Amino acid sequence: MRLPIVFLALYLLGSLTGCVSYEELRNFQEVPVTANKTEQIDNKVELQIQPKDLLRIDVESVNPEAAMPFNQTTQMASASQASSQNIQLFQGYLVDEDGYIDLPLLGRIEAAGQTLESLQFLIRGRLREYLRDPVVNVRFLNFKVTILGEVFAPGVITMPNSRVTILEALGMAGDLTDYANRDNILVVREEAGVRSYQRISLQDDSIFNSEYYYLKQNDVIYVDPIRARTATVSDPGQRLINYLGPVISIATSVILTLVIKN
């Protein structure tokens, strides 16, 4: 009868090691389960263009041939047989250190500090001297964020649009691991030559009103591990127990079943 007792002890040991509490795995704990409310979005950010941003500028007009000189994309696509990815790397207008871009015929235009919409308005006004009823579209080509720490797919993520929340970014990184500290996520932001740091919690519904809920270009997100994760990394024996825990549990269950039947 000692054998089942030994396996029972191993089973309890395997089930208790490396446990993560239910509360540690939950997000938005302060949001009621039966939440049925609406609220005005007051923290939506208007992204401002910064030096080193890469912008794509498309110009259209009732006379397409007249608009062609202003479209860098059209010129490069016709002059190069390179891959679409390589074309995109060179088709944008890079904002220089002083915050300016150079456009054909229009010359230097100050872009830094402006939103995409305000820059569109400025360029459209300048183009009326050359084009009839010009239409201008400006967007980021290098809008990206970096996600590190306890996510399933850390790395640099290029965003398809400029309105991205921290939840969307974490989703694109494969979501949080079981060892992620949902109460302590660091966001590092560089803007107008100033670097800021902010700790936010996914377990508090105040995140939805945070100025860091909507991300800006080049933000860095770091997800801290919980203490249970630290133990598995620092103690090889703990790691071995964690790996063997499920195996021990299954084996113990099978043996206890056989003993009970006999």
Q: In terms of topology, how is this protein built?
A:
Layout: H1 2-16, H2 22-25, E1 54-60, H3 64-67, H4 72-79, H5 84-90, E2 93-94, E3 100-103, E4 107-110, H6 116-127, E5 135-140, E6 144-149, E7 155-158, H7 166-172, E8 180-191, E9 194-200, E10 220-225, H8 227-234, H9 236-261
Parallel strand pairs: 6-10
Antiparallel strand pairs: 1-2, 1-5, 3-4, 6-7, 8-9, 8-10
Helix pairs in contact: 1-9, 8-9
Q: What's the CATH C level of the largest domain? A: Alpha Beta
Largest sheet: 5 strands, mixed
Overall pLDDT confidence:
79
The H/E string reads HHEHHHEEEHEEEHEEEHH
Ranges with pLDDT <50 over ≥5 residues? 74-83
Largest sheet, spatial ordering of strands: 7-6-10-8-9
What would you give as the CATH superfamily of the largest domain? Outer membrane lipoprotein wza domain like
Q: From the helix content, strand content and strand pairing, which structural class follows?
A: alpha+beta
By CATH, the architecture of the largest domain is named: Roll
Radius of gyration: 27 Å
GO cellular component, one term: cell outer membrane
Keywords: Cell outer membrane, Ion transport, Lipoprotein, Membrane, Palmitate, Polysaccharide transport, Porin, Signal, Sugar transport, Transmembrane, Transmembrane beta strand, Transport
Subcellular location: Cell outer membrane
GO molecular function: polysaccharide transmembrane transporter activity; porin activity
Outline the structure in words.
- There is one protein chain.
- The longest helix has 26 residues, at 236-261.
- The chain has helices at 2-16, 22-25, 64-67, 72-79, 84-90, 116-127, 166-172, 227-234, 236-261, and strands at 54-60, 93-94, 100-103, 107-110, 135-140, 144-149, 155-158, 180-191, 194-200, 220-225.
- 35% of the residues lie in helices and 22% in strands.
- Helix 1 (2-16) packs across helix 9 (236-261) and helix 8 crosses helix 9.
- Strand 8 (180-191) and strand 9 (194-200) form a beta hairpin.
- By secondary structure, the protein is an alpha+beta fold.
- The strands form three sheets. Strands 7-6-10-8-9 form a five-stranded mixed beta sheet. It has a three-stranded antiparallel beta sheet with strand order 2-1-5, covered by helices on one side.
- Mean pLDDT is 79; it is low at 74-83.
- The chain has three domains: 2-20 and 229-261, no CATH class; 23-37 and 143-225, Outer membrane lipoprotein wza domain like (Outer membrane lipoprotein wza fold like, Roll); 54-140, wza like domain (wza like fold).
- Pfam families: Poly_export, SLBB_2.
- Residues 46-140 form the Polysaccharide export protein N-terminal domain.
- This is Polysaccharide export outer membrane protein.
- One of its GO terms (biological process) is monoatomic ion transport.
